[in-house]
Amino acid sequence: MALIGTICKIHNNIFTLIDTNKKELLAYKRKTIKNPTVGDQVEYESSSQENLITKILPRKNLIKKPLLANIDFVFLVVAIADPDYSFYIIDSFLSYYSHLKVTPVIIFNKNDLSNDAQKQKLKLYDKLGFTCFFLSALSLSKEEKASIFKLINNKTIAFAGNSGVGKSTIINQLFGENFIRTGAISEKTKKGKQTTTQTILYYNLEHNCFLVDTPGYSMIDIETLKDAPIDKLFPEFLNLNDQCKFDNCKHLTEPQCAIKQATQNGEISPSRYDSYLKLIDELKKLKPKY
Ligand SMILES: Nc1nc2c(ncn2[C@@H]2O[C@H](COP(=O)(O)OP(=O)(O)OP(=O)(O)O)[C@@H](O)[C@H]2O)c(=O)[nH]1
Ligand SMILES: [Mg+2]
Ligand SMILES: [Zn+2]
User: Fold this and answer.
1) pLDDT per residue over 230-281, tens digit each?
2) In whole angstroms, how large is the CA radius of gyration of the chain?
3) Domain assignment present for 238
4) For residue 142, what is the domain's CATH number?
5) Does residue 113's CB lie within 6 angstroms of at least one atom of ligand 1?
6) Which of 29, 39, 145, 186 could covalently link to 33 via disulfide, CB atoms 3.0 to 4.6 Å apart?
7) 269, 266, 199, 280: which is closest to 232 by C-alpha?
8) What is the pTM of this model?
9) Is residue 192 domain-shared with residue 82, that is, in the same domain?
10) 114 CB less than 6 Å from ligand 1?
11) Angle at Cα 226 formed by Cα 105 and Cα 228, nearest 5°?
């Protein structure tokens, strides 16, 4: 009978698996197995010499950047300050996850470094219906921890977001000191010194969850969106889409566009419409006839 495990780390074609008893083991893969990915559920054979992955089980989803399979929630970590955030980057990540059918949860971190006005601007995402946390990883309250734990029980979650936003710090605060190494930002270069370099899936027994710390990515893999209906990835556009004059309205220069009107009268946030335009622009660079 085939054994089943989850890939939690890949290094030089050696795979660290967590088996169904939550024990770690090392495995190779059969040559015919293509592109196993962290998060994959696999079948493997075990002999006295080695463990050999023989099959990748069907994936629930696949994120390309960072490469990860079978994620229930992505915790998109955004620092309110240091490093500065950009609406466009937040919106492109949210559109990307929506397209990949992965549910995002937004953690606005480093609240200790920000003022109320900055926070207020980001409340936009709460109103759009995204699950949001505003916190400081360095001083997480019991209540904050409890509400995060409630969400992640029995789930596989990945922490994503730019380098230095506090992904590893949050994981350490939730799951214990030094669970994962964090980097101290060098004041001179503002570059993480001990930044996460590998995508690794960890198992946490107490909350029966798998979690992935990922290296920081500043931008999505835009290619993934090249055939996506971008306007359908902005939830606040959805109710208005059919009110545009033209059925095939792209909400760019067309007359009597309900999306543009809603942006002008403040129903849609200008930063969101801007992000929409920028995404379309970026995609045009890939595909001349968008
Ligand atoms: N002031 C403040 N600093 C924080 C907070 N959270 C994290 N930091 C600091 O920010 C720096 C970067 O944190 P990390 O957790 O290493 O960031 P990361 O997102 O894992 O970064 P990469 O691994 O490079 O992708 C560290 O010096 C942390 O101590 C916070 O809430 N407030
Ligand atoms: Mg890190
Ligand atoms: Zn329109």
Assistant:
1) 999 999 999 898 899 999 999 999 999 999 999 999 999 999 999 999 999 9
2) 21
3) yes
4) 3.40.50.300
5) yes
6) 29
7) 280
8) 0.89
9) yes
10) no
11) 60
